[in-house]
Amino acid sequence: MMRRIHHVGIVVTRLADAYRFYRETLGLPLWKEAELPDQGVRAALLGAGDSEIELLEPLDPSSGVGRFLAKRGEGLHHLCFETPDVGEALTALRAKGVELIDATPRDGLAGRIAFLHPRACAGVLVELATPPDGADARQGEPASPLRLKRLVIGTRDPRETSRVFQSLFGLPEAKMNGGARTMLAVGRGALLLVPREEAGGTEGLVALSLVALDFAALTAAFDRAGIQRLRGTGEVTVEPRSSHGVHLHISRFD
Ligand code: CO
Predict the structure, then answer these.
(1) 117 CA distance to ligand 1 middle (Å)
(2) Which of 78, 105, 130 is the last residue of a domain?
(3) Which of 118, 132, 161, 227 lies 20 to 30 Å from 196 when distance is taken between CA atoms?
(4) Given 83, 105, 130, which residue is the final one in a domain?
């Protein structure tokens, strides 16, 4: 039912500032930018392999995104799955008694979209999107030097959250070596569910993992831009103050 992680939404204070990191330093191509008055934001979609990153700047402090920014600061805000028919998906979810924010689909940056209530998805704000026909054809668009690998979600009970996500979205569980963590596959990406104690007590979206096609070039770009990060073998973790509030892991390999 869910084809892929369509995008991950990140709330930022100003798009122009966030572009310096996401477009100039990381090199993600800008695919679309528009004002969405019904959501109270100016939003941009940047390419990240099979998925996209959506940056959201509130147009006014009283909007949902404006209140999020005031309360939590910049950072990960929502997760969007692509589904072939958002209207049909809503009908199926409603039949299961799932709490929805949008009873019917509306127009968004990704196509026809709708939001589920975070209470229905273990504290994660989930958006569903059906892109317009032909939106997958990105011929002539610049390739993205990074691709989305997985999204980390902190939860009180990873097994229970895994059951909820499997039941709502039909996501298969990927094999893990036992332990408290669980992983769900979505297209070429994945959701990693970890106990909240491993995520500093946070429930909901906690971190984003990307793979760099040219790790050496990325490291050089980080040096030029003075990006604060922790270095591991084959992976860097960008300090959230450099990445607009996002715990960002970037690895050399899958
Ligand atoms: Co979105």
Answers:
(1) 14
(2) 130
(3) 227
(4) 130
